[in-house]
Amino acid sequence: MSSWRDQILKEFPPKVAPLTLVADPDGLLLEEGILEGVRERGFELMPFEDHIAFRYAYESKFRSHWDRGEHTDQCVVLRSQASDLGGLPDDLLQAGRKLSFNLGDVFPNLSYPVIAALDRGDLDALYEAQRRHAPGRLGDNATKEFILLHVFEIVPELIKQPSDLLRVLLRRHYRGQSIPKMLDERFIQLLRQSAQFDDWPLETLVTDREAFFSFLQERWPIFLDREAAKGINVVGEGKKSYRLTFEGPVDLPFDHDDIRVYIDNLFVEGLLHSVPHDHADALSKTWVGIGIRTAPVEDRSRRLDKLMESLQASFPDEDAKYTEWFRFARGWSELVLLINEQPDSLVDEVNERAKRLQSQTDDCFTAWLFNRYAGLINLPPVPPAMLHHIPRFLARHIEDDPHAKVALIVVDGLSMDQWLVVRNTIYSCYPNFRFRERAVFAWIPSLTSVSRQAIFAGKTPILFPSCIQTTNKEAALWRQFWSDHGLKPNEIVFIKGLGDGSLDSVSEALSHPRTRIAGLVVDKVDKIMHGMELGTAGMHNQVSQWAKQPYLLNLLNLLLDNGFQVYLTSDHGNIEAEGCGRPSEGAVADLRGERVRIYPDQALRSRVKEHFPSALEWDPIGLPDDYLALMAPARQAFVQEGQHIVCHGGSSIEELIVPLVNIERMGQ
Predict the structure, then answer these.
(1) H-helix or E-strand spanning residue 357
(2) Whole-angstrom Cα distance, residue 39 to residue 74?
(3) Cβ of 400: how many Cβ atoms within 10 Å?
(4) d(Cα 284, Cα 270) in Å, to the nearest integer?
(5) Is 173 helix (H, G, I), strand (E, B) or coil?
(6) pLDDT value, residue 549
(7) Which domain of life is it from (predicted)?
(8) Is pLDDT of 293 > 70?
(9) Taking the CA of residue 333 as centre, how many other CA atoms within 13 Å lie in the half-sphere pointing to its CB?
(10) 423-446 b/e with 16+ CB inside 10 Å = b?
(11) Residue 405 in contact with residue 565, Cβ under 8 Å?
(12) Can you list the alpha helix ranges (DSSP code H) found in 409-490?
């Protein structure tokens, strides 16, 4: 077989049985490619996790079809061993055929505990290596080394000098590769067998992406001093002393060919930041110029040009993994930030180039959403791909440590580019904060009542149809989720309406000795957005001004001082849009948003679309069947023609890919 998926997908011929029950202890059916293949065959997957939620969805979506004599290819997935299928309800057992899959069947010669730790997206490379090299039965360490070599291209015995190690770490951290802890430990163990890296803090640099880039950042000025001394006649300068946070070698070979190839992208994408230098005029004319701070306009122009080149060359295709769009969105948010720093100063050529890139981004992202978005919903919650995965992602902290305390701050309406504004503002004043950044998908349509409720419910919106038009049930949904995970009422906090004013109520709730989980809604950015008349640049300015105020910083310090692990996310982003006219629909729309209209049936929606042929009809994926969205065309809104507003509700990359950030203080 050409792929490990073929072994599974061949068991899903359509119209064999109305119901298929699958024991899937390793979550193989929840891998992106498998989900896509199963859907292409007409099957719809339904994980059996929450019994009550499952029964509701099962009865409302599928049982009614059977009662009418209609065929469905429904697949119920149980994340446990085949023997546990017998514990399913009798009506399912009587109606369904039974299947089971596990990693041991796919990789019979490799150590099961080791391959079970891998991200399912890495199984392609492992399966190809197994097919090509046909290893005999391997133990734990041999399996680890086989995976390091063939999946992650890491050969510890070939790492002989600093440039070798930096190349491996740059490739890993620049791509954002997730490598299981046990493989990192084996890699470090093998490196430690040589004395070459005794002074390197390997345990930190190998495993911690943010620490690795901070390690590079504080050594970049040292390298520039060496370059200046080498290429310029520097006389009479005393030896500088450098204050370094991270232990390890002071002088790094940034000029080695294997390292230098990364330098431009690291500075362009904001992973490293340019620094001032006494010999900036001379150095800026060399290859290190991208990392030298000179005239702000020239620096910005240079970054803009290189960033647009990088993004143009890295569009994910229609079959790309969702993580590729996360990475693209990170670069895109840097571009949005740069373009709007001084929008009036952009030359026409740059403006036109940016608009073409924006149009191409919208087209590519929309095509991908129609092809792959539905498969995101049932992905495993670790790491989270969508907002409703976040509570289950956080639950592992609570379950693994009986003393753990976790806080989730939801900043309503905060886009990824606006998060960069917040982060840069905080960091410029308080560099002891560290931000571990990732991204998640919001729900389509990107409305607060859909997307924010999904966060606090930890469920898809189809499972809270009675309150999908309001946010009044958020506190109850949050408390119910954590109650189902074993927490008592006095251990759960939910507070909304935050963003300015006093923190007394928050402080009182967090100081209670039994509080373990806190859900906090900050709505200041959303308020700024709904009153914004100056577009994206105005949003950045106002968000920056808010971040400079003490409120957010005081909230973060309050949480950290009380021992909470702090995560920050958003329910949706926003875009600057131009009016395309208001639909004349009377009272038929259930919701009349600026970027989206919601209709109770297809006929009503189709009637309005006739007047807006470029608008997007969105199937109710994960939504109630009578929640039918018509989204305004790209970068447009259902308001007066020609009017410019900042709004949300659609499916642009800025609205849908939002930050999820773990916030720490250095030294904690």
Answers:
(1) helix 348-372
(2) 10
(3) 8
(4) 18
(5) helix
(6) 94
(7) Archaea
(8) yes
(9) 31
(10) bebbeeeeeebbbebbbbbbbbbb
(11) yes
(12) 416-429, 448-457, 474-484
DSSP 386: B
What phi and psi, each to the nearest 5 degrees, are found at residue 244?
-110, 135
Cβ atoms of 389 and 660 within 8 Å: the answer is no
pLDDT at 30: 85
DSSP code of residue 88: S
Measure the CA angle with vertex 57, ends 53 and 58; round to 5°. Answer: 110
The two tokens of residue 245 are 């946070």
What is the tens place of the pLDDT at every residue in 370-383?
A: 999 998 998 889 89
Count Cβ atoms below 10 Å from residue 41 Cβ, excluding itself.
Answer: 14
Chain segment 436-448, per-residue pLDDT in tens: 999 999 999 999 9
Position 296 scores a pLDDT of: 82
Residue corresponding to tokens 């007047």: 611
User: Is residue 266's pLDDT more than 90?
Assistant: yes
DSSP sequence for 177-221: ----HHHHHHHHHHHTTSGGGTTS-HHHHHH-HHHHHHHHHHHHH
Cβ contacts of residue 466 below 8 Å, gap of 6+?
A: none
CB neighbour list of residue 238: distance below 8 Å, 6 or more residues apart: none
Confidence of residue 222 (pLDDT cuts 50, 70, 90): very high
Sign of CA dihedral 299, 301, 305, 307: positive
Query: 330: how many CB neighbours lie within 10 A of its CB?
Result: 20
User: What crossing angle do the helices spanning 448-457 and 474-484 adopt, rounded to 10°?
Assistant: 20
DSSP class of residue 249 equals -
* 170 φ, ψ (degrees, to nearest 5): -65, -45
Residue 45: strand pairing partners: 75
236-265 pLDDT tens trace: 455 567 788 899 999 999 999 999 999 999
The predicted pLDDT at position 236 comes to 45
Could you give the angle at which helices 390-400 and 474-484 cross, rounded to 10 degrees? 40
Q: What are the tens digits of pLDDT across the range 19-69? A: 888 888 898 988 888 888 888 888 878 777 767 767 776 776 666 666 666
Above 50 in pLDDT, residue 526? yes
Of the pLDDT bands very low, low, confident and very high (cuts 50, 70, 90), residue 162 is very high
Average of pLDDT values for 262-288?
92
pLDDT at 261: 95
DSSP H or E run through 114: helix 112-116
DSSP string spanning 577-642? EEE------TT--SEE-SSEEEESSHHHHHHHHTT-TTSEEE--TTS-TT-EEEEPPTTEESSSTT
Average pLDDT of the chain to the nearest whole number = 90
Got the DSSP string for 519-566?
Answer: EEEE-HHHHHHHT--SHHHHHHHHHHHHHHSHHHHHHHHHHHHTT-EE
Residue 667 pLDDT > 70 = no
**Which residues, including other chains, have CB under 8 Å from residue 596's CB and lie 6 or more apart?**
445, 446, 447, 629, 630, 631, 632, 638, 649, 650
Nearest to 140 by CA among 106, 112, 179, 178: 112
DSSP string, 500-520: SS--HHHHHHHHSTT--EEEE
Q: What is the DSSP letter of 662?
A: E
Tokens of 256: 């080695």
Say if CB 520 and CB 541 are below 8 A apart: no
Element (H, E) at 280: helix 280-283
Residue-level pLDDT at 587: 54
pLDDT, position 69: 63
| Cα Rg, the chain, nearest whole Å | 26
Cα dihedral sign for 210, 215, 218, 222? Answer: negative
